[in-house]
Amino acid sequence: MVVLEAMSLGLPVVGGASSGAVPWLLRDEAGITVDVKDPRAIAGAIMSLLRDRSLADKIGARARNDALQRFSATAVSELYLRRLEELL
Predict the structure, then answer these.
(1) 34 phi and psi, to 5 degrees?
(2) How far apart are CA 64 and CA 61, in angstroms?
(3) How many CB atoms lie within 10 A of CB 77?
């Protein structure tokens, strides 16, 4: 949930490459996935965002767009309706 909240605020996210739904949420360059057991990889990803504001802004914008398109109330409602129609 925290990843999705950060995405919806347009924040660049660094998340675990094998951490539950994180890779799915951060698809299409909407964030940076790293091996959470590799502290250097985590630090490197964070430092790259701190050093390159343009990159951080670009990833944050992608994340926000993705979150709004996939998880807005309208988008989720439409998915539920489609699924219910399929089941009926």
Answers:
(1) -140, 165
(2) 5
(3) 10
Count: domains in the chain: 1
Q: Are 24 and 12 in contact (CB under 8 A)?
A: no
Q: Which structural domain, as residue segments, surrounds residue 72?
A: 2-87
pLDDT tens digits along 17-57: 988 899 999 988 899 999 999 999 999 999 999 999 999 99
Residues whose CB falls within 8 Å of the CB of residue 77, separated by 6 or more in sequence, listed in order = none
pLDDT beyond 90 at 1: no
Round to whole Å and give the CA distance between 4 and 50: 21
User: Per the structure block, which two tokens stand in for 4?
Assistant: 């999705």
Q: Tell me the C-alpha distance between 12 and 85, whole Å.
A: 36
Give which of 40, 3, 33 is closest to 18, Cα–Cα: 33
Longest pairwise C-alpha distance within the chain = 53
Residue 10 sits in a domain whose CATH number is: 3.40.50.2000
